[in-house]
Amino acid sequence: MDRIKLTGFADEIASDFEEQCMRLSELGMNLITLRSINGKNILDFTYDEFQKDILPILKRYQIIVASVGSPIGKVDVDHLFAQDEQIHKLDELIKIMNLLEVKHLRLFSLFVKDHEPKTFLSVISFLKRVMTKLEPHGIIAMHENEKDIYGDKSTFCLQIYQELAHPLFKLAFDPANFVQVGENPVSCFHRLKDAVVDMHMKDAVYETKINVLIGTGDGKLRELIHLCQTMNYQGLYTLEPHLYEFNYLRELETNITMHSKYRTGFDAFLATKEAFFQLFLNNL
Question: Per-residue pLDDT for 260 more than 90?
Answer without folding.
Answer: no
